[in-house]
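> Could you send the NADH-quinone oxidoreductase subunit N prediction when you get a chance?

Sure thing. Input:
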Amino acid sequence: MWSSLPSFSVIYPEALLVTVASAMVLMDRFVREKMVFVWMSLGGIGLALFLTLTTAGSSFGEVYSADPYSLFFRLVFLLVLALVVLLSPGYTREQGINFGEYYGMIFFAAVGMTILASARDLLLVYLGIELMSLSIYVLVAFLYPDLRSLEGALKYFLLGCFASAFLLLAIAFVYGLTTTTALDLIAQRLTGADGLDRSLLFVMALFTVALGFKIAAIPFHMWAPDAYEGAPTSVTAFMSVGPKAAAFAALGRIFMTAFFPARADWVEILIPLAMLTMIGGALMALVQTNIKRLLAYSSIANAGCALLGVIAGTENGLAALMAFLFIYALMTLGVFGIVLLVSRRQGQGESIFDYQGLAKTHPWAAFLMLIFLFSLGGIPPTAGFVGKFYLFKVAFEAGYVALVVMAALTSIVGAYPYVRIVLLMYMKEPEGDIPLNSTAYLVAGLTISLAGVLVFGLWPAPLIDFARSCVFALP
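Output:
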């Protein structure tokens, strides 16, 4: 009898993260030694990792599951969370940000991301998106005396409301067509169904719009540059990788599970979206001099590349997407780690010209920046090259040759802004001393990112095989 009941153990990691987050928010007013929150965060992440591994395979009925697919993304989210915690202390102290509130809101956002990856019901997908988004709205506005921070938060909030409305409409229409919101049951009822082509196409377009906002795909990207620029740099680092990976996790599960019977239709929606996103992101990045806006458009272009994994419509395509998101998290957080290293006061380190002559004053920081930027540009032997190569490979094997050629060309164009920063670091003389905001925690975070970028660039097989094994177990 008891074995047939839903298992609450599947939510133990989320419950722990919520408990730690709540405790940090409540303690912020009374704890004077702010580094306590860093230790609490790292301890909570370690315990959450233990619970994630020990509860793998459990599920709560047919609506929430710690299956191998969600396990992969849970590990990615915990890695992102740990790296952001390590990279943040020096910057948050310089900016006067309350540690407890800051780390607490990041933990709440991570819980929403985990729900997104584990949800097998559309209502839980909506719940996960809202929890994640509401937390990030607050984080973006943390520099509230700065009008850029308020502007970015307001734009993100307003467009996030539109995305939520589209998602609710999509869920309502799906329920009207299938009388269920469970992904597995939706797939069963759509298989062999007649007369639903036009209605389904409309529903899938609504889902694409809703999730397109979250991955900042063009033309749903309008919030990203201003939110990235206005947010605290450590928040920008977090929101550029974590929420994007969570949205792709939901996108992959929904389209490859619930709507897989209509794959021929949704591919026709995603192809122009991917093309527009890759081209627009790469071209707009060329003219940016603010490094946070540059990375925003770079993130947009990389989202277009990541869509290739979904468009391929195969298990290998989804595995390539998952591996790319893991690698993207490492290299993007590495770049932001260097930005945080240079950011000693408000606005410092945001212009690409702030890195002029960095190789002369701090050669080790310039070398790390070079590695991370080359990885973002997809230059071998870094992990970024491996991630893009596998995405191109699965799309090519699925027959999307023209799309792969376009992706390769936009990747070449998109590498120019990174090369420009490298030239400024190595070919120009510094205009003055470049003080660094270095801490042992930040150095540890950069070391982990560097190790991942180099190891998976030279030896990607374990990551690819693990991602593939997680996808093959997807129901």
